[in-house]
Amino acid sequence: MQTKGGKTHNQTPTEKLKSRIVALKTGANICRHQLNKASVIVSKTHLSVDKETEQLSQQMAEQVNRAFEKLEAGDGVFIEHKTAKTLMETRKARIWDRDRR
After folding, report:
1. Residue 96: enclosing H or E segment and its boundaries?
2. Where does the chain have alpha helices with state H?
3. Taking the domains of the chain in order of start, what are their residue ranges?
């Protein structure tokens, strides 16, 4: 027995089932809405990451193109891998020493 507005109301099994279906549909709609909101957030984040990756790729391509243009124009100097690695290690050591002070 349930009371509605101060009156006693006996629900038939069919009425109980209908009210349960309504409750389940309402819950499903809430879940669907939350899922849609989460999908939008994920899509926006994915879109943001895609744009950032595209920008970084474009910047890298521009740097590589400038380096080759400089080398072809005779303004650049090609450095062997071992030499470049040694120069970078020296540069890193100077930075680490500076940061330790």
Report:
1. helix 81-100
2. 13-72, 81-100
3. 2-100
Token duo for residue 56: 């970084």
Angle of CA points 55, 61, 67, to nearest 5°? 140
What is the pLDDT at residue 1? 46
Q: How many residues does the chain have?
A: 101
DSSP E strand boundaries for 1-101: 2-4, 7-9
Which amino acid is it at 85?
K
Q: Are 11 and 2 in contact (CB under 8 A)?
A: yes
The first and second tokens of residue 32, run together, are: 């669907």
**pLDDT at 96 > cutoff 80:** yes
Give dist(CA 82, CA 79) in Å, integer: 8
Q: What pLDDT, in 10s, does the model give residues 13-68?
A: 777 777 777 777 777 767 676 777 777 676 766 667 777 888 888 898 898 888 88
pTM: 0.39
Torsion of CA 14, 15, 20, 25, to 10 degrees: 100
